[in-house]
## 1
Amino acid sequence: MRYTPDRGWHDAKIGPRTGLDMHPATKTLHYAIEIFEGLKAYRLPDGGATLFRPDANARRFQSSAERLAMAPLPEQLFVESVRALVRADRDWIPSAEGASLYIRPFMFGVDADLVPDPASEYLYCVLANPVASYFKSGDKAVTLWVSDTYTRAAPGGTGAVKCGGNYAAALVAQAEGKRQGCDQVVFLDAVERRWVEELGGMNVFFVFEDGSLQTPPLTGTILPGITRDSLITLARGMGLTVREERYGIDEWQADARSGRLVEAFACGTAAVVTSIGEVKGREQAFTIGDGGPGPVAARLKSALTDIQFGRAPDPHGWLDRLF
Ligand code: PMP
C-alpha cells in the first residue's frame, strides 16, 4: 500500500513477493526512515487461526510513525492489512507444536532525494513467514552478554519505538556477545550504565525468592513489549506481585549469588518466554538459580501460549480470530 500526501493510503494489494524497484536516492536508504512490527498468527485446535493483540501492535506502529515524523497509518488499516494477508496465507500457518506464522508489517519513506527532512511518500508492506521456536537451544536457558561498550537507547532517542535504526546500532553488540559464546546481549541504560534495560529483541523479568516479579519500567528507552504487558497481566492474575522498577546489574549479580534472585527470563513475540541461565561480561560470570529453565518462566509461558493457541479461555479478549 502506498501513501502520497494528495491521495493518502491507496493501491492496497496482496500477491506473491516481488522485488522492489528503488531509486538509489530513496531517502530510507540514507536516513533510515523505517519502522516495523512483529506479531504472529496461531493455529487453533479446531483448525482455525487467530492473531494475538494486533490492536496493540497497531498502536505501537502508530507511535513509531510519530517518533520518526512519518505519515500515520490508521490502526484499523494496520489490523485489516494483517488479517487480509493471514487469510490469504492460511495454508502457511503451521500446526506443529509451538510453530506459528510470523508477520512483519513495515513502512518506509520512498521519496527519491537526499534531503534529510521527513519523507512525504511511503510504502507499507506486510510479509508473513512460518516459524518454529526462536532459539536453537529450544527450551534451554540462554546465556547473556552484558554490553559495557555499547548502549541501545539514550533518553530522548528512539528506544521506545520499533525502527530499523535501533537494530542496526545493536548489531555490533550482538556480534560481540556471540564472539564471547553468548546467545543474546543485555543492554544497560546509557546514562549511568547501571540499570538493566532489555535484550536486543526481548524484555526482561526477574523472580525473587519471595515469589515476586520485577521488570524494568517503561522510562522511554525500552520497547513496550506486548508480551511483557501480557505477562504482567497473567502474573498478577495468578496472584503474583509484579513491580515495574529499575534493577541494577550489580544488584542482579549480588542477588543471584545470595539466592535472593531465583529466576530471570526474557520475553518477546519471537522468543515467547525464555529463561536466562548465565550472565557474562562482568568481571566474573554469574549463574541464575541452577542455570536451567525456571518454574515461574515455564508457568507463565504455558499460561500465555495456552491462550495464544486456543488451549485455554481468553479472559482478556486478546485473540482476534480470523477463521
Ligand atoms: N524489546 C525489543 C528491542 C524488541 O525488538 C522486542 C520485539 N518486538 C521486544 C522487546 C519484545 O516486544 P514484543 O513482546 O512486543 O514482541
Note: The CA atoms of residues 16 and 50 lie 22 Å apart.
## 2
Amino acid sequence: MQRLPRNAPCWCGSGKKYKQCHLQSDLRQQRAPARAATLVKTPEQIEGIRASCQLTRDILDRLEGRIAAGVTTNEIDRWVYEDTVAHGGRPADLGYRGYPKSVCTSINNVIVHGIPDETPLRDGDILNVDVTTVLGGYYGDSSRMYLIGEVAPEARRLVEVTRQCLNLGIAQVKPGNAIGDIGHAIQQHAESYGYSVVRDFVGHGTGLEFHEGLQIPHYGRPGTGGVLVPNMTFTIEPMINAGRYEIKILDDGWTAVTADGSLSAQWEHTVRVTEDGVEVLTA
Ligand code: MF3
Ligand code: CO
Ligand code: CO
C-alpha cells in the first residue's frame, strides 16, 4: 500500500489535489486511500506489466495467420490457452467471476464477452478476440478485430473507424489531460459517422489487478473526470455500434449483443501515462 503525495490528484477522480480533497478523511479513518494502491505504478511494477502486455500482443499476433473461415471459436480458445501457458502465463479470463473460457470471441452483432463454442467462422464475419494475460502476477489486456474472408464495405468501415477511435483516444493520454478528453475524442469521431458509443462497458485501470477501480468511459466532455498523472496504467477499449448503443445480455449471463441487431466493433490497448505522453504497452 502506498500513500498518495499531498499534491497529487485525489484518488476519487475529482481532479482536486489530494490534500484539498480526501486526505483529511483518509487520515481520520486511519487508512491509506483505497485506490491509491493501484492507481500509480512503481518502476518495478511497470516492468512486469510491460512484459505481460508484450505476451498479450504476441498471442494476438500469432492468431493473425490462423484465424480464417471454418475455424471454430473453441479452437481459438484452445490456441490462446496453449500459447499463454507455453510462455509462462495464465489466461486471466479463465474462471474470472465464473467465466468458462480463456478468451472472449465476439462475432458481428456481439459487442463483448462472446463465449467460445463450436461455431465456425464464416466468410464475411467480423470478429473481436480479447486476450488478457497474467504473467508474473501482472495483467496485460488487449483486443483486435479480425476480418474473415470477404467482408462487406460497411462492416470494414465500422472496423476501421473503431480502430481510429482507439487511436484518437490514445492520442489524448498525457499528464494533465482529463479522463473525459479521451472519451470525448472517441465519441466525436464515432458519431461523425452516425455510429454510437456503447455506454455499459468502459475501459479500466489494469496491471496489478484485472479490473482496477479506475474507469475510462469512451464518451464524455473535455476537461471532466480525473486528471491523468504519470505511471497510471489503464485500458482504452471503445465498443462502437453501427446502430444504437443499447445492449442486451444473453441468457448465458455474459454475451452482450446490440439491442437493435446492428454490427459492433472493438479494439483495445493497455496504455501507460508517461512523463510527457503515452506508452502503448500492448503495441
Ligand atoms: N478482457 C475483457 C476486458 O477488456 C474482460 C473479459 S472478462 C471475461 O476488460 F470474464 F469475460 F473474460
Ligand atoms: Co479491458
Ligand atoms: Co480485454
Note: Helices lie at 23-28, 36-39, 43-64, 73-86, 153-171, 179-192.
